[in-house]
Automatic annotation (TrEMBL):
Keyword DNA-binding in annotation: no
Species for this entry: Rotaria sordida
GO CC field: G protein-coupled receptor heterodimeric complex
Keywords linked to the UniProt accession: G-protein coupled receptor, Glycoprotein, Membrane, Receptor, Signal, Transducer, Transmembrane, Transmembrane helix
The UniProt record lists the keyword Ribosomal protein: no
Subcellular location: Membrane
GO molecular function: G protein-coupled GABA receptor activity
Name the UniProt record assigns to this protein: Receptor ligand binding region domain-containing protein
Domain Receptor ligand binding region: 42-242
Pfam families according to UniProt: ANF_receptor
Length: 296
């Protein structure tokens, strides 16, 4: 599985509304343009197969990049986005698990053209309604999970805990928010120790990463911190939780590699079905609804 979580993005490009201000109700084809979704094609194709079997009043045409590895590059992605906008198809949809830097530019471009868009991005940097008024979240933000973490601490009466977070705004903002959330009642909670971790994914940095993790965990052990809330990516999680039990690392990685081959991307699957139900509900076949969605 990739170290970067899938961020399923679907951007509804109502080209005739934007450029020609009319819509053909007899048109039932939707072009699905995909970027960076190589690992998610099995899930996407599975959803498309189910939709076709139900004989819904809709035809999805998948314009894939399955055999082309597109770099996580802003220029390449924005160019493809503009090409999609320039087409005359009734409805185009862009599905992507692009990296964070690319998604932010997609969001800005879509906002400029007043194009409604939504993806399963949980980064706080894209949560500003003022900056991204046409952005609709379909999963909770990382910040939203802090309320659950707080309730978990309350449920088990864990009043003393530590925080570990990966360097980078995506993780530091969430850690700071949780600290502020628990700092409201200092009599109930004590954030005993907070540590950030820098991690380099290249193989030559493996020993340095292991050394840093050992030092970090020793700090928590010295302070006798038993409850640790961590926020980092999947690669660091694999390395971190196996660090104290090196004899189990190989067995764990072997099991993990088997999961990779059978990976099911729920976000990609749900995205395709969300589009199908949205169209089948006739919402997209009504010009007034489209104008309302674009204008509001």
């Amino acid at each position: 599985m990739s170290t970067k979580s899938f961020r399923s993005c679907f951007i509804l490009l109502f080209n005739l509304i934007i450029f020609n201000n009319y819509i053909n109700a007899d048109q039932h084809k939707i072009i699905l343009n995909s970027l960076f979704t190589q690992s998610s094609y099995p899930s996407i194709n599975f959803a498309l197969k189910q939709i076709r079997s139900l004989q819904m009043d809709i035809v999805f045409e998948l314009n894939t990049t399955e055999d082309i590895i597109i770099p996580c590059d802003v220029g390449t992605t924005v160019k493809i986005l503009f090409n999609i906008i320039n087409r005359t198809n009734l409805l185009n949809v862009l599905i992507s698990d692009a990296c964070q830097s690319v998604l932010s530019y997609i969001a800005e471009a879509a906002t400029y053209f007043h194009i409604p868009f939504s993806f399963t991005e949980s980064d706080l940097s894209l949560s500003s309604i003022d900056c991204y008024p046409f952005f609709y979240h379909i999963v909770p933000s990382d910040r939203g999970h802090n309320l659950v973490r707080k309730q978990l601490l309350q449920y088990f009466n864990w009043t003393r805990f530590g925080l570990i977070y990966q360097h980078g705004s995506k993780y530091t903002w969430v850690a700071n928010d949780l600290s502020n959330l628990t700092a409201i009642d200092k009599k109930q909670w004590e954030v005993n120790l907070t540590r950030g971790i820098a991690y380099r994914h290249e193989l030559e940095w493996h020993d340095d990463n292991a050394k840093n993790m050992k030092g970090l965990l020793n700090d928590f052990e010295t302070r006798d911190v038993r409850i640790i809330i961590a926020n980092f990516n999947q690669t660091i999680a694999t390395h971190m939780f196996c660090h104290e039990q090196p004899s189990y690392v190989l067995d764990y990685l072997e099991q993990f590699s088997k999961f990779e081959r059978n990976y099911f991307d729920a976000y990609a699957y749900d995205t395709i079905w969300s589009l199908a139900y949205l169209y089948q509900s006739k919402f997209l076949s009504n010009e007034t609804n489209l104008k309302t969605l674009v204008d509001n």
